[in-house]
Amino acid sequence: MTAGQISDFKGADVLLADLPAETEEVIKDRGYNSNRLRHSLAEQDITACIPPKKNRKEKPV
Q1: Where are the domains of the chain?
Q2: How many CB atoms lie within 10 A of CB 10?
Q3: DSSP code of 52?
Q4: What is the pLDDT of residues 17-50, one digit of tens each?
Q5: Model confidence, pTM
């Protein structure tokens, strides 16, 4: 968890490092919408269920 003024995905690395090995999906809100986070999850064969931000110009991977 991060303070209200800090983007959620900045603290995501700490939280996602402790995911159980059998994790298949991660469901988060738009605050976790970043390519870096999505790629990190994909490398672990985890599906990212994260809606894109409204101002996102590219479709998420």
Answers
A1: 20-53
A2: 13
A3: P
A4: 888 989 999 998 887 888 888 888 999 999 999 8
A5: 0.72
What CA–CA distances, in Å, run from 37 to 9, 29, 48? 7, 13, 9
Contact yes or no for 47/41 (Cβ under 8 A): yes
Which H or E run includes 49?
A: strand 47-49
State how far the alpha carbon of 25 is from the alpha carbons of 41, 47, 53, 58, in Å: 9, 5, 19, 22
CA atoms within 13 A on the CB side of 8: 11
**Sign of the CA dihedral 34, 5, 23, 25?**
negative
- Position of tokens 């672990």? 44
